[in-house]
Amino acid sequence: MKIFKISGLALILAGFSLSAQSLKSPDGKFEMDFNLKSGVAYYNLKLNNKIVVEDSKLGLELLKDGDIQFASELESKNNPGKNLNSGFVKTDEKRDSKNETWQPVLGEKKNYINNYNELAVTLNQTANDRSIVIKFRLFNDGLGFRYEFPQQKNLNYFVIKEEDSEINFPTDMKAWWLAGDYDSEEYQTQTSNISEIPKLWPTSYDGNASQALIKNGVQMPLMLKKEGKEPLYINLSEAALINYSAANLEVDAKEFSFKTHLTPDAQGAKGYIQTPSVTPWRTIIVSPKAEEVLASKMIFNLNEPTRLKDTSWIHPTKFMGVWWEMIIGKSNWSYSTAVNVHIGETDFTKLTPNGKHAANNDKVKQYIDFAAKNGFDAILVEGWNTGWEDWFGHSKEFVFDFITPYPDFDLPMLNDYAHGKGIKIIMHHETSGSAANYERWAPKAFDLMNKYGYDAVKTGYVGNIIPRGEHHYSQWTINHYQRIVDLAAEHKIMIDSHESIRPTGLNRTYPNWIAAEAARGTEFEAFGGNNPDHQTILPFTRYMGGPMDYTPGIFQTKLDYYFPGDKRFVKTTLAKQLALYVVMYSPLQMAADLPENYERHMDAFQFIKDVALDWDDSKILFAEPGDYIHTARKAKGTDNWFVGGITDENARDYTIDFSFLDPNKKYEATVYEDGKDADYINTPQSYHIYKKIITSRTKLPMHLVRSGGYAISVKPFK
Ligand code: NOJ
Ligand code: CA
User: Fold this and answer.
1) Has this prediction a pTM greater than 0.70?
2) CB of 523 closer than 6 A to ligand 1?
3) Which Gene Ontology terms cover its molecular function (predicted)?
4) Where are the domains of the chain?
């Protein structure tokens, strides 16, 4: 236990004024107290009368009121007296509550329940006569709060220096954390106590094409666990990140506390605000059960309902791609041997082909044929457009125009060919970080997509952001992603953004933002490796805010198959790769391996062909971050269930209790499990498939080898 920072006597001597407002969750288990102490705002959170979050300060520091015209003003015009973090009196208090059910366009369940009690306190800073509102929503699974800035005479325009929202815990806890950064989440998760973070921080990250690390900082979503007889699982994140910069957390390892740390822009400012305005929600999901953290829909509930009137064109998409062969280095995105090409001036037909360009007519047709034969919806083709010769590492503003195909990619012909077989081609727009250039070309690029019938695009932001000095998570760039999603919606185009901001539940409001990468995906198995526990952590962190394009389904895990002597391998058994389609929720799922590798294992590939992408129900059967996750999901509009389980570097046994099935039905289960001699290092392709008739009374023992897993498809037996 921490020693109280200020004794009661000291507070009385300081002449404090204390007025507490209390808020309870609908089930009465959570209680939140809001306090003003000497004009400073605090909140705390209890579950079943036990402190979860100790008194924690709220407020914002401002750089300046009004407009900023010159960078030099930023340094000179810091107005501490005008920070929005002290000198407050409470002038109003409003309460509200909601208990509603809503349907996501695509989701893990048919119905999401949004049930909370709300407290909104208006605080007036008397010295400057201006007011802010702090709004709290207490759900049965945790707390969300945000700042609201009503329009008023003395608060019209201001610039944020920092948001100082604290989350103070009474004890040390286990943490699953990523090194704080303004540009990348493509790091391996570290597991340690909060108190050990500073010691481990210097060795917690590797290199990235764009990175701006925050010393001793950690990223959100952050997963925490209070261990012991009465464990508690806590997830810290944010919801509805709109027109604001993304937050990391600063760690106070001695006090077990965290404080928001926003992403600065090119001038060092962290947010330009014009009232009326609101911040994103800060979220604290709390449960004694890890499974309930995964099942929480709080982040989505804190987002606004969709703004799109017609969502009928948004659909789940299972796809393959001309992709993995470039990631592993077997072929190239670029067409020619040239360097230093000038888009718009270079005649690509005159350049010397490098002989390894993957996005060529013949190969794309082969992928289309295979995808069509196996019931896929789409194929992604990367490297179809000019510019890849010098896309990387030059901070070049104009690399791609997103409309000019290479000479060996016949865009109209290939789209006709694909459509004739019921397949769509997924567009690829790698911006090389030049968001400015992408905004310039996106209207033309989306028109081209409409003309040829593309309805989804994978965007990418490898490298430092241009406008130079902006970050992947700064306010300008957050607004850029939003502008692209809005423009795409006007064109009825779905977006899968890579190296963008991690999702904060915005796919509720903008359901055409169907998925994002924004974490260390399968590609890193070829760039340095993902730990065997990686996928048992991601659902507790990155996936809390929305679907990820993780690109699972690698069957040929050892890369010496292509390159003799190559030591790289995907750290998984084949059966575990199947399980990922159930464990890691996304309505956009790739079968990432090459057709030839699936051809050799068509019996196992059957699971990927069958698995659903959109669900009426989801049940987290058993989960522990960093160790294992077992999930069962019921496919939309059917009686079919899919079950998946994965483990970390340890072998584990588990018994599946099928009591979630309809008790009046018989089902046929097809089980895909690790083979008896399966091992993720030596014999990853050893698997065993069998069928079995089951009912809701069936209990099925499963053995998972180290970094192994299983997948089961369950269909009513006729
Ligand atoms: C990184 C993306 O994550 C990957 O999927 C893509 O293939 C490359 N950038 C090239 O755009
Ligand atoms: Ca990436």
Assistant:
1) yes
2) yes
3) carbohydrate binding; hydrolase activity
4) 8-301, 306-516, 519-591+600-718
Whether ligand 1 lies within 6 angstroms of the CB of 463 is answered as no
Name the residue type at position 241.
L
| Per-residue confidence band for 131, with pLDDT thresholds at 50, 70 and 90 | very high
517 lines ligand 1 (CB under 6 A): yes
On whether the CB atoms of residues 34 and 18 are closer than 8 A, the answer is no
CA distance 602 to 324: 19
**Cα 445 to middle of ligand 2, angstroms:** 22
The answer on pLDDT for 15 being more than 60 is no
Distance from residue 498's CA to the centre of ligand 2 (Å): 6
Kindly report each contact of residues 343-350 with a partner whose C-beta sits within 8 Å and lies 24 or more positions away, as own/partner: 343/386, 343/387, 343/398, 343/399, 343/400, 343/401, 343/404, 344/398, 344/401, 346/386, 348/386, 348/404, 348/406, 348/407, 349/407
523 in active site:
yes
Nearest CA to ligand 1 atom 11: 430
* Active-site entry in 108, 517, 523, 525: 523
Ligand nearest to the CA of 462: 1
Take atom 6 of ligand 1 and give the residue whose Cα is closest: 460
Architecture of domain 519-591+600-718: Alpha-Beta Barrel (3.20)
pLDDT digits (tens, 9 = 90+) for 604-631: 999 999 999 999 999 999 999 999 999 9
367 φ, ψ to 5°? -60, -40
Residues 666, 692: contact at Cβ < 8 Å?
Answer: no
pLDDT at 69 exceeding the cut of 90: no
pLDDT reported for residue 6:
41
Whether ligand 1 lies within 6 angstroms of the CB of 430 is answered as yes
Q: Which atom of ligand 1 is nearest to the CA of 430?
A: 11
Q: In the predicted model, is pLDDT for residue 77 greater than 70?
A: no
Please check whether residue 366 is in contact with residue 418, taking contact to mean a CB–CB distance below 8 angstroms: no
Q: How far apart are the first and last CA of the chain?
A: 60
Please check whether residue 511 is in contact with residue 308, taking contact to mean a CB–CB distance below 8 angstroms: yes
Query: pLDDT tens-digit profile of 364-403?
Result: 999 999 999 999 999 999 999 999 999 999 999 999 999 9
Distance (Å) of CA 416 to CA 363, 422, 454: 15, 10, 11
* CATH top class, domain 306-516: alpha beta
Amino acid identity for residue 581 in this structure: Y
Q: What is the pLDDT of residue 73?
A: 59
pLDDT at 82: 79
Average pLDDT estimate for 352-363: 98
Look at residue 189 in the predicted model and tell me its pLDDT: 98
Query: Hey, what CATH topology would domain 8-301 get?
Result: Beta-galactosidase; Chain A, domain 5 (2.70.98)
Q: Candidates 385, 498, 517, 530: which one to mutate for ligand 1, based on the most atoms within 8 Å of Cβ?
A: 498
Can 306-516 and 519-591+600-718 be said to share one CATH topology?
A: yes
∠ CA 618-624-630, nearest 5°, is: 35
Whole-angstrom distance, CA of residue 88 vs CA of residue 91: 9
Give the percent of the chain with pLDDT over 90: 93
Predicted pLDDT at 20: 86
Q: Which residues contact 146 (CB under 8 A, 6 or more apart)?
A: 134, 135, 278, 279, 280, 281, 282
Q: Identify the weakest region by mean pLDDT among 5-19, 93-107, 503-517, 586-600.
A: 5-19
Ligand 1 proximity of 470 Cβ (cutoff 6 Å): no
